[in-house]
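Input/output pair, single chain:
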Amino acid sequence: MSFTLHTGSLPLLISMPHIGTAIPAELQPHFVPRALDTEDTDWHLARLYDFAAAMGASLLQPQYSRYVIDLNRPPDDAPMYPGASNTELCPTRFFNGDALYRTGCAPDAQERARRRSLYWEPYHQALQVELQRLQQVHGYALLWDAHSIRSEIPWLFEGVLPALNIGTASGASAHASITQALAHVCASHPQTSHVVNGRFKGGYITRHYGAPATRVHAVQLEMCQNLYMQETPPYAYDPALAQRIQPQLRTMLQAALQACGVLYAT
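Output:
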């Protein structure tokens, strides 16, 4: 199985599409040696969100690295942020723009289609089925797409990224009251900077599955890794830092769920 799915009791599914670190043995010789360290992973998010299962959330977590397949890109590989640097469905560059593959070894169309079928489609089928289950049980669903990234990556964005980046596809993927509830929580923690629909507005998962008209709301949270870990090798988890941000993450999830509950109160 290329992913694990934990089913919970709340109308909440947390997807973590970029936490995988595995690269199949047959693909490893095609990559440059540095790629095997999977430096652009969303490191330690499963540990950071380890409180979520006890809350009652469902959790969807992949095994394989985003270098193999980017689960947060559209199947047709259309750029998510036109005019900016983008990574592909099967990425060919590190986050600094360097080549991921040895010369002549980047995946061709046939290989990209194979990976899409083998890794991308099962993940998205599981995501869709779990959202449907949550809708059937609760009448609505909240999809939380969890991400993390280094705070400074010039190839992807200028300057230093705000600590918490809330994305709702410029308001299309979640009701405004949910966005407002999240922004209110962040405003009550001024020591942690935040932005709504800034550089990261949400990738394919947020944009594709967020459909407020059908009672499915999707939010992407892209957070800077220096909130909870060391951003340079060996990318160590910092429990003391993590314990500072985890209460805010929990409160954000609770606030979003509460806003959903108000929308559909009978």
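The mean pLDDT is 95. Residues 4 and 61 are 5 Å apart (CA to CA).
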